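Workshop exercise sheet. Pairs work together: one partner reads the sequence aloud, the other fills in the structure field after running the prediction. Swap roles for the next sheet.
Pair: D.N. / O.F.
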Amino acid sequence: MQVIKYKTRVDAEGKISLQLPQYLANQELEVAIVYALANSETTQLHEIVDSFYGCLAEEPILIEEADQQEVA
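Structure field:
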């Protein structure tokens, strides 16, 4: 099972357009739709969080346990 996530808008008739990657062409798929309403506050929060993605990639996280130090 794989997940493809994107934001779309539902039209006035309740329809959405779904386009999948071309490598899935001519294959039988089982598709599940999970949705959450997107509001401006949530969208702004996600954009802020996403802007920090990978910012500590070069900084190891040190964890001290029972006189041992591990790098995560």
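Discussion prompt: The two ends are 28 Å apart (CA to CA). What would you look at next?
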